[in-house]
Amino acid sequence: MIERPGVESAGRRTALTVAIVSHGSDVQHLPGTLASVNAAAARLDEPVQLILVDNGPPGPERARQLEAAMAKWCGAHETVSGQGNIGFGRAHNLALTRSRGEFHLILNPDVELAVGSLAEGMAFLRSHPRCGMVTAAVKHPDGGLQYLCKRYPSLLDLGLRGFAPGKVRRLFARRLARYEMQDRINERDTVWDPPIVSGCFMLWRTATLRVLGGFDPGYFLYFEDFDLSLRAASHTRLVYLPTISIVHYGGDASRKGMTHIRYFLASAYRFFSRHGWKLY
Questions:
Q1: What CATH number does the domain containing 118 carry?
Q2: Label partner for 249 (CA 20 to 30 A): which of 23, 37, 131, 144?
Q3: Is residue 64 a part of any domain in this protein?
Q4: Has residue 192 got a pLDDT over 70?
Q5: Residue 170 burial (C-beta neighbours within 10 Å; 0-12, 13-18, 19+)
């Protein structure tokens, strides 16, 4: 059940909060994301809260784009804007302060959900109290599997995966496959305790995420999901659940220009300084 505008009261508890942070050109994928969330939420006989945090540049054109995107969502929602680009983690923490859900979904604006994804994830969490978060089987638009669960990275792993040309990556294919957990991640097997999961889809027990304090706001972009995954391991168990299927349209930092590369390097330095340096 999707709640309709005007039926909520302040502070009312909901089953699920869906939190999306949008910035810049990702608004082009947002209508598809919201349409897929709408279809998945319609499978639930429970209320769903949507929070959209807009980190994008203000202006009438962006306002029109967001309004058109929100037309794909049939229920009540809240848009948080005016704070400027405060970074991915801090923006999601804003959404967490407004969350009323038993569960809290951190979702990228360039992701589309299979229709049963929300029901599958919530049912798993309810039947496995030791699990505090589930992540999904992530597909490329062409249907190929993305390996977004990771083992602890070395500097060499990150350099190869993010910046090395294809010929060099092929020379280290076995090493990168191990880093990406290709020996364990597939479309059939549930995997408990992957060390690192992607922030493009994280379905949390809200109480667990609040105990963790959400994302570390010191990461402007990149590695905030690595950090949160490692911190979560001391409080709960994470699960890769392939019965949840999503399509992810995201790209690598190296393809987005020098600004994103600087964000990546600054966040990598913060991550390794906190969790331990590993050269190779």
A1: 3.90.550.10
A2: 131
A3: yes
A4: yes
A5: exposed
